[in-house]
Each structure stands twice: as C-alpha cells, then as structure tokens.
Specification:
Blueprint (H helix, E strand, L loop, with lengths): L4 H28 L6 H27 L13 H9 L3 H5 L4 H20 L7 H32 L3
Length: 161
C-alpha cells in the first residue's frame, strides 16, 4: 500500500471544504425552517452538524500529524471536490425555499458519493485512515437513511416542504 503523504493528504484536504460547505447548507436550511413546527428536524440537523465538525477536527489532526495541516490559502480543489461540486445542492437552494427535505437529501447523497469514491481508492490510504473513513462512511449512510425516511414522512404528512 502506498504511503505517499501527498497522495494521502490531497483528498483529505478536499474533504474539509466539502464538510464545511455541508455545514453552511445545514445552517441555511435551519434558518429557513419553522422553529416551532420543525423542532425534530432542526435537532437532527444540529446533531449532524456537530458530528461533521468533530470529523473536520479529526481530519485536521490526521493532516497535522503528517505535516500537511489544512490551509485554505494553500488548498487547490482536487478530484474529490469536483465530484462534490457536481452533485451537491447550492447554498442558494437552501436559502431560496427549495423543498427543505430535497436540499438535505441531495446534500447527503452527494456526501455518500464522496465517501464511496474515497473508499474505492483505498490504495491511497493507510489502514488507520481507511478505518476512520469507513467509520465516517457508515455514519454518513445512517444519516442519509434517516433523512430519506424523514423526507418520505414529510411528503406523506403534508406534502414536501
């Protein structure tokens, strides 16, 4: 298995802005929700945001150990970010009134594709990084499934919002 830290660091560097954009989409989504009516969804999104922030911290720790700490000034988007950009909703979608559950589901689908891509290229990763990414991919899949269930429920109860 390769242990070239440059190959190892580049996709992890892409993952940090991806996760940061996910946080931004969720913040915009939460601000568009009705705080009285959507308490459960807001709590779910806040929990997902907290888990995302923890993962960003974990990624920064991995990169710092390899002497490749993330720096927005030095970051150049790579293949992983291009995949995300192609599939993710826009922040304006969350702010514009596009159905909330559709924006959230699209965000999670795009993030699942990112993890799937990363884990299909495990020759770039050390074993501990593979374990970390696998754990995050499983958590991501759980979140995506919960959102899909909530989306179906929202469509059944009162039409998609």
């Amino acid at each position: 298995m390769k242990n070239d830290t440059t190959i190892h660091a580049k996709p992890l560097w892409d993952l940090i802005p991806i996760l940061t954009e996910r946080l931004d989409i969720y913040r915009a989504t939460i601000s568009a929700l009705d705080a009285d009516r959507d308490v459960g969804l807001i709590a779910f999104l806040e929990n997902a945001m907290q888990l995302t922030q923890q993962f960003i911290s974990q990624l920064n720790g991995v990169l710092a150990k390899e002497d490749h700490a993330f720096s927005e000034a030095d970051w150049v988007a790579g293949d992983l970010y291009a995949l995300w950009k192609e599939r993710r909703p826009l922040l304006s979608d969350a702010e514009s009134g596009e159905p909330v559950m559709q924006v959230i589901a699209k965000t999670e689908e795009a993030l699942c594709a990112v993890f799937e891509y990363m884990l299909s290229h495990t020759d770039k990763w050390r074993e501990d990084t593979i374990a970390m990414l696998t754990s995050q991919a499983e958590l991501q899949q759980d979140i995506a499934e919960e959102i899909e269930q909530a989306k179906k429920k929202a469509m059944t109860n009162d039409g998609e919002r």
